[in-house]
TrEMBL record:
Name the UniProt record assigns to this protein: Dynein intermediate chain
Entry superkingdom: Eukaryota
Source organism per UniProt: Macrostomum lignano
One BP term from GO: outer dynein arm assembly
Entry GO CC: microtubule; outer dynein arm
Keywords: Cell projection, Cilium, Cytoplasm, Cytoskeleton, Dynein, Microtubule, Motor protein, Repeat, WD repeat
């Protein structure tokens, strides 16, 4: 059932009243209990629309949806103020205010942790992607080396098989060997020429000095 109206007691600071669409009047006493109404009265069979309380807090007028007003007399316990009731009610409100602030701070901390956790998860995900790329590059590199090695081995095996089967001309092989020897001889001659240059320069220098004398 939905609430339609409410008002605080004019005599007691810890008592208030609420009306509902089912025609009932709820009386709440915070010093007695706070989660449920202390008293529930069926005033009429139609929704109550408004509540008005007497100045001394003993009589209450309840107006229904059809315009009928019902006067309800309250018991003395709902309008006679207790000792230190105002201080007790203020303590209840202060405690609830502190509780609400603690809940709000915890809620903010939870949101910050969730946000921080999401950022850490995203960073970890980026690190994992980077590691995957590095691992893939390494795997491709070693696979290329392995393929090149296999290709060279296959070519070597094919050449050896061709030699065994007599498919390669022996003269060509011999020519290849002679060509290699000639290349080595040419390199040797070049080195000897390079070594002879300093000796010739020294001899020419000596001859020029003796001629001057």
């Amino acid at each position: 059932c939905g609430l339609t109206d409410g008002c605080w007691s004019t005599a007691r600071p810890g008592v208030f009243f609420t009306s509902k669409t089912d025609g009932t009047l709820d009386v709440w006493d915070l010093l007695f209990k706070q989660n449920d109404p202390t008293l529930t009265v069926q005033v009429c069979d139609e929704p109550l629309q408004c509540l008005r309380l007497q100045e001394h807090g003993r009589l209450m007028a309840c107006g229904s949806q059809s315009g009928v007003a019902t006067i309800v007399e309250l018991s003395e316990g709902f309008y006679a103020q207790n000792r230190n009731e105002r201080n007790l009610v203020n303590a209840i409100f202060e405690r609830e205010t502190r509780r609400e602030k603690i809940l709000e701070s915890r809620h903010r901390e939870m949101k910050l942790k969730e946000k921080k956790g999401g950022a850490e998860e995203e960073e970890e995900h980026r690190d994992e992607e980077h590691e995957d790329l590095v691992a893939k590059a390494e795997a491709d590199f070693f696979a290329a080396i392995e393929n090149e090695k296999k290709l060279r081995d296959r070519r070597k095996e094919e050449r050896e098989a061709a030699l065994r089967n007599g498919q390669v001309d022996e003269e060509e092989e011999a020519g290849t060997g002679i060509g290699d020897a000639e290349d080595e001889a040419e390199e040797k001659q070049e080195l000897e020429k390079v070594e002879e240059v300093p000796e010739q320069a020294a001899e020419e220098k000596g001859e020029s000095e003796s001629a001057e004398k």
